[in-house]
Amino acid sequence: MAEGQYSDIVIDHFENPRNMGEIEAADGEAQVGNPACGDVTKIFLKIRDDRIVDARFKTFGCAAAIASASMTTELIKGKSLDEALKITNEHVAKELGGLPAAKLHCSVMAEEALRTAIEDYRKKIAK
Length: 127
Ligand code: FES
Hints:
Strand order of the largest sheet: 1-2-3
Largest sheet: 3 strands, antiparallel
CATH architecture: Alpha-Beta Complex
CATH class: Alpha Beta
Shape: globular
Low-confidence stretches: none
Bound molecules: FE2/S2 (inorganic) cluster
Structural class: alpha+beta
Number of helices: 5
Strand content: 15-25%
Radius of gyration: 14 Å
Mean pLDDT: 95
CATH topology: Sufe protein. Chain: A
């Protein structure tokens, strides 16, 4: 893909983000920043019997970051925590029809937020 060129799927998820917002009293949540640009993604998870039954996000960032977070929440809904942990940013970028090379780092934030939110849940239930 040419530098700076977004796929139709990225543009669709940027213009119509899926699952944007918060979950009150989320079972797991995380906020992750991208040190390269200062953008931020928050992920909120509702978890029942070790399965993600709802996921929402808020991203203050570029189109690739918003589309990646949107796609990540779509991919993890209904998955067990272990299945969700197998989803990588490369997987998300592929589902988005690819990301320009210079924008691949933007998809890492959603993956990190997801991992951190699952850790947050596991820490909470271990207590
Ligand atoms: Fe900051 Fe894309 S430029 S996440």
